[in-house]
Amino acid sequence: MPTYAYACKDCGHAFDIVQSFSDSSLTSCPECQGTLRKKFNSVGVVFKGSGFYRTDSRDSKGSSVSPAPAAAPATPAAAPAASAPAAAAAS
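Above: the chain sequence. Below: its structure as C-alpha cells.
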C-alpha cells in the first residue's frame, strides 16, 4: 500500500500515512482539525541507463538485424553443371 504525505494549511503539521488506493483522502488535521492538503513528491522510481528501452538492444548503426554470413565460393565444376540444364531447357 502506498504512503501519502499530508500537510495542514492552518497549523503546518506535516505527516505521512499509509492508505489503500481505494481509501478517500484525509481532509482534517489530527492536531488542530484544520484543512489538510496532500503533498506530491517526485517519482520514487527512475529508470536510468541502458537496457530499459526497446531501442537499447539495437547496434550503433540503427539496425537490429545482423548481416548474413558470406557464402562459400562456388567450385568451378559446380558452376557449369548448374547452368547446363538451364541452357538445355531454354533451347
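The beta strands are 3-8, 14-18, 36-39.
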